[in-house]
């Protein structure tokens, strides 16, 4: 390896993107989830992070002409059993895919160190082109926060170790993203912001609101330095009065750009139905 | 030498008229002797001044002779200091051969006066935000290492891409007409964003072209945004060993590409924050890299821009925000600029510089790239001036308090989110 080999010609074509399976969400994201970098989805539970990432596992298999990567994907999960039934349900809205479940690889994660070990081992998997399934172009980690939240104590030594591990994992992911042209999606949780004056502003808005709570992304400032794009999903219950003056609640969900090198600060409403996740025109 | 420079600056103010006589003399004598067709459009002065010169009818150097410095200031609606500046640049341009002769009396030595002249004639790379340019003394300066740090999403990468584009602005438009080296350690450089910024830059140049009317008809703008990408040498590095290797290789690379005028590393930090068991090794590696970059900046007269992250530091029982890589690194760069949020506005703060005073300025990140803040009408501008003055006073009053800058005032205490 010579340093001159690291010089790359910049092609005027935008970087390859992976569709989310919905034209409105794709337009919002400038084409989809970008390859060669890490995209983070931040949300409280029940906002649809897993839903969006499951749909991504399917849409990544679409041919490039339809905005997909015509590729398999790897789903690394730490929380709960793998949501197989939901994935199956969503796959019904991708009728063109032939046996989509065959092209999704899954692997459970036990700890942050385990994640790093797994990442170090998959190089050969990413490199080799087994004939049984297309090459892997999408890695989803669900969720990074769960791995870190219980393993480390809240003292200076552990925090330092923890942030060192953040950068190690992120560096490995970015290297693989770059080498193999992968789209990497990591899912993160939120923490409540108790004292406003305490919180550090990261990204487009002073505070993030979801379910009338003020939150910020988990794992703090160090981890925020490790991702290229941060997207925030929120949900809010709204009271709506119907014709009979009965009030009902309706859940509205939004996806918003917190920071991204290629996207302006903006947001987009989306809906989760039984069949799929899709964006709403403004 | 810097102290000497600032001393000379003070002295200079006291002798405006005397200097003016010298410049006028130099323009007169050198002008006859050398190229009489020399146009003011080739003078290394800011684009706006050049435009003012041309629109006021000073198209040739000889026409500069016919006006006194106060005439010039009045015609161009600029300060006498600026008028003096133009005359000095003109005389320095003409007298470059002469000054080489005098300074070689002691081999390799330069008089402080020559250094001052050289420094002020050096090109600067505009940030496309006039307020930010103002506090930087005209833009990012060549021959120096400038570190720019801030929280994720504040616009570090945006500024990096903007500089990689702006360095290519042709001389006729007040730019350096150089090329850029972009060393990407984080993978945040997006071609589509670079194209957007290049397109906006071209539009601005076209507008400027229209402003100058027919004077610059010769240099037609037939560039496309894609052409800007051709002049960005993009290195993607995935580990700290690669980063060091590329920095070591730069000397050879730039000697083959002499028109490189800026080296941007986005970010210097990323690969050095993984757990380094040997922190002394990290300090040595970083120090060595900083030294090499500083040498490059001097040797090839180019600007080095290092983007840095912020981190929390445990000081006296609370976590406070500081630029990453530790205390020894903070000495490595000539200039240090911190980007921070103040309410909903983005601000830049000169944290450290040997030649320019601490100040802060508002900027914004738009679809077209880095620009002045939207609130550009005069009243708001004045308000923000007042705010900056307040910020300055804060910084002055609380100098004894270690970390009290306007930046810290924005985030007094930071809690770790666990």
From TrEMBL, chain A:
Gene Ontology cellular-component terms for this entry are:
Rad51C-XRCC3 complex; replication fork
Sorted keywords for this record are: ATP-binding, DNA damage, DNA repair, Nucleotide-binding, Nucleus
Residues in domain RecA family profile?
Answer: 14-190
**Pfam families given for it?**
Rad51
Q: Which domain of life is it from?
A: Eukaryota
Instruction: Indicate where this protein resides in the cell.
Output: Nucleus
Q: Which GO terms describe its molecular function?
A: ATP binding; ATP-dependent DNA damage sensor activity; four-way junction DNA binding
Q: Tell me which InterPro entries the record gives.
A: DNA_recomb/repair_RecA-like, P-loop_NTPase, Rad51_C, RecA_ATP-bd, XRCC3-like_C
**Which GO biological-process labels does this protein carry?**
double-strand break repair via synthesis-dependent strand annealing; resolution of mitotic recombination intermediates; t-circle formation; telomere maintenance via recombination
Name of this chain's protein: Dna repair protein xrcc3-like protein
Organism the protein comes from = Nicotiana attenuata
Gene designation: XRCC3
UniProtKB/TrEMBL annotation, chain B:
Task: Provide the RecA family profile domain boundaries.
Answer: 121-310
Q: Name one Pfam family in it.
A: Rad51
Gene Ontology molecular-function annotations: ATP binding; ATP-dependent DNA damage sensor activity; crossover junction DNA endonuclease activity; four-way junction DNA binding
Where is this protein chiefly located? nucleus
Annotated GO biological process:
meiotic DNA recombinase assembly; reciprocal meiotic recombination
Entry's PROSITE patterns? Answer: RECA_2
At the top level, the lineage of the source is Eukaryota
What would be one Gene Ontology cellular-component term for the protein? replication fork
Question: Where would one find the signal peptide in this protein?
Answer: none
Q: Which InterPro entries match?
A: HR_Repair_Mediator, P-loop_NTPase, Rad51_C, RecA_ATP-bd
* Annotated localization: Nucleus
Query: Where do the coiled-coil regions begin and end?
Result: none
Is Hydrolase set as a keyword in this record?
no
| CDD domains the UniProt entry points to | Rad51C (cd19492)
Question: Which keywords appear in this protein's UniProt record, sorted alphabetically?
Answer: ATP-binding, DNA damage, DNA recombination, DNA repair, DNA-binding, Nucleotide-binding, Nucleus
Q: What is the role of the protein in this entry?
A: Involved in the homologous recombination repair (HRR) pathway of double-stranded DNA breaks arising during DNA replication or induced by DNA-damaging agents.
Q: State the family it belongs to.
A: Belongs to the RecA family. RAD51 subfamily.
Report the protein name in the record: DNA repair protein RAD51 homolog 3
- Print the organism lineage: Eukaryota, Viridiplantae, Streptophyta, Embryophyta, Tracheophyta
